[in-house]
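User: Hey, quick favor. My workstation is busy. Could you predict this chain's structure for me?
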Amino acid sequence: LKSWVPWRLGAPQVLLHMNLVTMIPAIVFALLLCITSSAPASHMTQEMLDHQARTGAPWSKGEVLTVMAKLYAVFENPLTIFKTLTSDEPYECRTGFNDPPDEPCDGQDGREDGNVGNDWLPTAAKFLRLGFHDCLKYKDVSGGCDGCLEFTNMFIRYNDKASGDKRNRARLDALAGDNNNLAFAADVLEKIYTTPSFPAIATPLKSSLQKTGKSRADLWALATLASTHYTMHQNNLACQGNGDDETGGRCGHIYHHDNPGHPCEIDMAFSMEFLTGRRDCPARDKPTDPRWYRSRPYETTRKEAGPNPHGNGKATANFFRDWFGMSRRETVAILGAHSLGSLHGVTNLFKYDWKRAQTHLLNNQYYRILAQKPSLMAACGDAPTHPKFTGGPSGSLAPTGWFVRPIRKCVSGGPFEWFHYYRRCPECLGNTNIETEGDGTFRSDYCCKQCATKKAADVDPKCFTKVTKDETAIPVDTGLYFDFQTGEGGIPLGCPGFGAGKFEWSVAAINSGDGRLVDYYTTEPKCDLQHLNDGPGSLEMHEVVELYANDQKAWVD
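Assistant: No problem, here it is.
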């Protein structure tokens, strides 16, 4: 590691006054593992040297700040950047119900049309995901943080249109993660790496990073750091009530309405450290045979070892222990990255948001949702006069919990997704009901009057009930807090509530499509809490979730 460049966190315009000592929040712990585990050349075996391409040259402070400004320009203008890079050559896409999908994204016969979607845009969340996936080691335990990705399923957009049965259960169960949909974010970084003037809306470099000997891996690491800083800063802007729809959004920050018991803003005085000297993957690991998509210099043919998205708490904790040397507590901390961004069904079959209408803000709300803290639901109607948040009678905080639903797109009936419910009243404008969820009674003006005039104990139960609305989690998330088992194809089992008797969960019952055999929508498991820990005197994983839910600074530190 040849050099480090210090900066103090704050608004981008004060980056020259940075002062670094230790490390960034645990959310990018995997990045730091790659920073601190790079051995000096004198200590590297020949085998280690053989698996590395070259060492990245040191960066000057000016280069770091110029590239940071370029990255902020990308974060602020993702659609413009996407259109710029695809104006001459469309981004690749394959779709269909086959596995793997192999039909063109032409919009015909119900197929995906290949038009730009939020899942493609180079948002700050996408670069944070890219940073983690870059640091996944290869299955032979080498590599990691080397500026390369393996391309299995990279350009797939799963068909979810009206043509054909959305629940034909023909796809294989996705029991290992991949790098699907990360190529465009990497394409943006490649353009910054090779073209000093890109993007045109930012200050150019004097010479390209490539020509001055920088490694792609170092650039990707810097992008991960920048996305972390940027989205925490966006959180603070929203806390202050500042910003447009890309910061506060129409809803504004939920902590303005749902007092979490800790400051809304993140104390940005903590330290971050950018070290250079990572090695890119070697040329011999890159594909040589023609592909249906254009070649990229950062593609590798070596398979990464990724976590199982259907893994329970034990499987997830063991993955981070075995591949990164991380403790149970550090595992809980790094999954806080899911506070940012969305799930995209066209990318991985999971869908909706971890945090409805708050997806661009990096904070501890992820843990509050996992821990089932009473809260308001972000409503954010289309009209400015529509309510921003809704909860219980007279605006009280709504009790929350989880339903588990089989999405029924894979052979096992999965993926199995956890839907966050709020026991709440409907969205109302005065006594006029504008609700879109629930049954006819819940969407009636009668319920608006009930919730506005009566105490919770007196409200008609049909008007104050458990309702979900596009806020979800995947098993690796809920396994941090709940102890459940997984069976065939990732089916969650082992908790009261997953069914008994005629409602017992099984692949056969779920795939029957018979609502008399399985409750597909309101299965509410009563799982024990996750008691895994790091040894005597340490907090259990569910206690770490509670700690971070109640104390944002504890998570940041």
